[in-house]
Amino acid sequence: MLPIYGARLFASLQRLLAHRPRTRSAGYGGRRGDELRIRIWGQINFSANLRVSREGEIYLPRWRVHVAGLAFSAVSGHLRTALERVYRNFELSVDMARFTPFRCM
Predict the structure, then answer these.
(1) Residue 48 contacts residue 59 (beta carbons within 8 Å)
(2) Model's pTM, two decimal places?
């Protein structure tokens, strides 16, 4: 019996796709053009959708915070550490507002 043409190609593609993150936020790397929804309340009140710059940074009114290469789960802690240098009693939330689509090659 003859093998199905291209079966090996699709089998390897299936294995490759099974190992990638299901959502962009799971393996976030802070790509240029991504938009993060930042909400801060307490001693400081701030709310905005901030776009990741070409350098991989987001710009708050008094800070520039580098987020490129961070896992999405680490962005909130990283931002909290930067803000705790000045403020004490606050809460924050970070959500993915918009992300740039992946480009193959």
Answers:
(1) no
(2) 0.64
